[in-house]
Amino acid sequence: METVGEELRKPAWVRRVLIGRNPARTLARAILWIILLVVLRSYVLLPIRVEGVSMLPTYKENGINFVNCLSYVFRAPQRGDVVAIRFTGRSYMLCKRIVGMPGEIIAFHHGHVEINGELLDEPYVKSPCNWEHAPELIGPDEYYVVGDNRSMDFDNHTQGRAQRVRIVGKILL
Amino acid sequence: MKRWFVRLGWLALLAAAVFWGWGYFFPNPEHVIRKELVQLAQVASIAPNEAPLTKLSKTQKLLGFFADDAQISLDVPGRSIRTFRGHEDLQQMALGARSMLNSLKVNFVDVAVTVAPDKLSAVADLTATASLPGEKIPEVQELEFHFKKMDRDWLIQRVDFVKTLR
Q1: Which of A39, A70, A168, B97 has its CA 20 to 30 A from that of B80?
Q2: How far is CA B66 from CA B33, B85, B159, B166, in A?
Q3: Test mutation, A50, A87, A152, chain B, max B CBs within 10 A
Q4: pTM higher than 0.90 for the full model?
Q5: Which option is the CATH number for A50-171: 1.10.10.10, 2.60.120.20, 2.10.109.10, 3.10.290.10?
Q6: Of 1.10.1760.20, 3.10.450.50, 3.30.390.50, 3.20.20.100, which CATH number belongs to B28-162?
Q7: How much is the ipTM here?
Q8: Which residues of chain A have pLDDT under 50?
């Protein structure tokens, strides 16, 4: 015989889908997932929105991406890596490509990057330019970064030497 | 038993009052500076169609955050790094900006405050953003604020522009 209370209850399968067989276990699992996601979002994969045109055509404006904060834990940044560079924190970051490594001499001649006097092959650059920049020594703990979009004037493009401590991680996608 | 709970409750209230009173009469310099920076960002922002009197009063309020001999270095977009010295220079800059721009939203994020051991000076590193109407991307600059305690007030003595990329 069914009571009124049992009639008003949700069907058993709905409850099972929503809260599982054991509500205490489901709650523990949910808390664990939330902690895992918070840790992942804060220390491993930082979600970012790309603003601006300096990385065109590789990264389009308003695109969503992630910064892998663990990418340089066991290895140093490499030439060609697209990295996120922080200001005082991670609220705003610069998204640039590493073209010069520590200790190298970098220059721009007829729009091409020269590393220690040799031309750097940059297949990712689709916009030709005529940038000229005198040879510059990159410090021992610095990386020279620049955007892929070179269609604007050299002075209007944010590029230069980034300290290693400012590199948050590699852009994932 | 009930009496004990009441006594404990009173004790907790008293502790909270002492804590609040201590914070009120002897505020933590870091908290004061952070609060001041929030107020500075609000005063530096320009509301759309600001009345001339509001412009003037906000400019005066802005000057109140700075020491008489304050020096500010800013990287103004499209121009080289510009330096402003003293209240008069700052006033001209603020009034000029207010007459030139219809609206501006200034924000300070990722603020790190370091107070000197003598608690008479402090440095605040922060990322300043300035959003102009019609521009999708805000201007982002890293700034270093040098504060000096004068009487009971923390006044800005110097603002340096920090180059994120050298």
Answers
A1: A168
A2: 13, 11, 10, 28
A3: A87
A4: no
A5: 2.10.109.10
A6: 3.10.450.50
A7: 0.81
A8: 1-2
